[in-house]
């Protein structure tokens, strides 16, 4: 089949400069969600009708194999589909999706496709509050036409069965029907929904199909709608995680903006955010208020509350946080401890090494069983360029040490507290750079002048 995604509208009610279909739901543009649904059906062709926001919308989708059709000006959903006609394969049916209806399940789309047969099918739903949607007008039990809210009589507005916008249409007949659409209506638009009455008049069967859940068909027209759908999607994601055996301290207080893959016996405390692709191995525990983006955490690791971890790989049985910041291109081996107020960037830290308090480790290679004392800083930036620090195995770094990169600390070396290391430190020796301690006898603090 063909899938056409209508995504040209401006979305005035969003009150935003961003094209509507680029607003994000669970971290991905609305259009991405719709495209993923389309792809899941493995159609012959995918056509996206875009218009408002033009190149910005196109550029937001990197995928190949999409026919882009520009609709300008935007004269309505019927006009939009008409622009796509030449890109369609006539021999198969056409499924119309809306760029602003992002959460339809694949099973529902398959049901809609199955119902169309040689005719036409439309996805409808009964809403307690149908306002804003086109209403399904039936004659007896048969669908007769769709009337838009703005064109509906008071009696028609009382109808609670609404048009979700999703339809399957016989492609060969589309040119005829779309050519006959008028715009003599409240919005002066060519409504795709008017095709229903034309099909009925031509004796083509129109079947209405309902989704398993009403939320599958909710559209985004305002920030309120977007917020509502965000909660729906997060609730569904949390339910799925629980089904998979993940322990969630509160399923209403976890946000997954991407993919979260969990092993067995993973536990996640409240108010965590997972972005991009996050993998948590068996037995991983994530404390409250953590943000993880594009991270792999191996089995048995515990991330204490208030950690921010981005683009990193964390080994087995590590202890991270509380209040740790792990930045891109960081790789921690197993049994590594990164404690409170420690920032790690673009560094590898070997097995069993610890940086437990108040440190910055950037552009560094740290070996195994290294102890990084409190307040240790790798001075990786000279104001113009970044340089690397190498700390070999079994090194002990005293507190409040600065390592001015590029610099190397040899295996088994000890750095005395307060050292400012500007040259390499040899293996197995104590290196210390601080001045000798003196006591000035009889020294008095200055007194305040009267
Ligand atoms: C539309 C339906 C309405 C249905 C509702 C469901 C029509 C006339 N009305 O109304 O029956 O209940 O969706 O959400 O179809 N678009 C274009 N080009 C245009 C106009 C719109 O591509 O010229 C796209 C929009 O980007 C959007 C979709 O079509 O993705 C729907 O447009 P919108 O203006 O939101 O229609 P509604 O008024 O919500
Ligand atoms: Ca809409």
Written overview of the protein:
There is one protein chain. By secondary structure, this protein is α/β, with parallel strands linked by helices. The protein has two domains: 2-217, Spore Coat Polysaccharide Biosynthesis Protein SpsA, Chain A; 223-431, 3 Solenoid (UDP N-Acetylglucosamine Acyltransferase, domain 1), CATH 2.160.10. The protein has a 21-stranded parallel beta sheet that branches. Strands 5-4-1-6-10-7-11 form a seven-stranded mixed beta sheet, sandwiched between helices. A three-stranded parallel beta sheet has the order 28-31-34, with no helix packed on it. Helix 3 packs across helix 6 (171-179). The longest helix is centred in the middle third of the chain and has 21 residues, at 223-243. The radius of gyration is 31 Å and the shape is elongated. The site of calcium ion has 3 residues, from loops.
């Amino acid at each position: 089949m063909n899938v056409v995604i209508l995504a040209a509208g401006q979305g005035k009610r969003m009150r935003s400069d961003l094209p509507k279909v680029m607003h994000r739901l669970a971290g991905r543009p609305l259009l991405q969600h719709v495209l993923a649904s389309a792809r899941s059906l493995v159609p012959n062709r995918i056509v996206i009708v875009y218009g408002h926001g033009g190149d910005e919308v196109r550029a937001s989708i990197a995928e190949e194999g999409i026919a882009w059709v520009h609709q300008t000006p935007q004269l309505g959903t019927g006009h939009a589909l008409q622009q796509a006609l030449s890109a369609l394969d006539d021999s198969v049916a056409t499924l119309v999706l809306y760029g602003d209806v992002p959460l339809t399940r694949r099973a529902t789309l398959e049901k809609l496709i199955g119902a169309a047969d040689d005719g036409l099918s439309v996805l409808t739903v009964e809403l307690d509050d149908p306002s804003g949607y086109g209403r399904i007008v039936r004659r007896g039990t048969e669908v007769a036409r769709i009337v838009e809210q703005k064109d509906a009589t008071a009696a028609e507005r009382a109808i609670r069965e609404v048009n979700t916008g999703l339809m399957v249409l016989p492609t060969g007949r589309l040119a005829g029907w779309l050519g006959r659409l008028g715009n003599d209506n409240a919005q002066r638009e060519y409504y795709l929904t008017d095709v229903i009455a034309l099909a009925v008049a031509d004796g083509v069967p129109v079947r209405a199909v309902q989704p398993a859940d009403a939320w599958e068909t909710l559209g985004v027209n305002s920030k309120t709608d977007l917020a509502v759908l965000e909660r729906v999607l997060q609730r569904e994601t949390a339910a799925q995680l629980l089904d998979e055996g993940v322990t969630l301290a509160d399923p209403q207080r976890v946000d997954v903006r991407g993919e979260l893959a969990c092993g067995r016996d993973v536990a996640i405390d409240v108010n965590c955010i997972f972005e991009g692709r996050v993998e948590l191995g068996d037995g991983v525990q994530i404390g409250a208020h953590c943000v993880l983006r594009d991270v792999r955490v191996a089995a048995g690791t515990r991330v204490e509350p208030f950690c921010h971890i981005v683009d990193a790989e964390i080994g087995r049985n590590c202890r991270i946080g509380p209040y740790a910041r792990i930045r891109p291109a960081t790789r921690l081996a197993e049994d590594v401890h990164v404690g409170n107020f420690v920032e790690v960037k673009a560094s590898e830290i070997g097995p069993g090494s610890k940086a437990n308090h108040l440190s910055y480790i950037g552009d560094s290679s740290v070996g195994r069983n290294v102890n990084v004392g409190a307040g240790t800083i790798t001075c990786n930036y000279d104001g113009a360029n970044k340089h690397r620090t190498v700390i070999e195995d079994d090194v002990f770094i005293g507190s409040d040490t600065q390592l001015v990169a590029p610099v190397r600390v040899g295996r088994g070396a000890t750095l005395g507290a307060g050292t400012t290391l500007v040259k390499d430190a040899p293996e197995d020796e104590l290196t210390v750079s601080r001045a000798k301690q003196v006591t000035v006898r009889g020294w008095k603090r200055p007194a305040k002048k009267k």
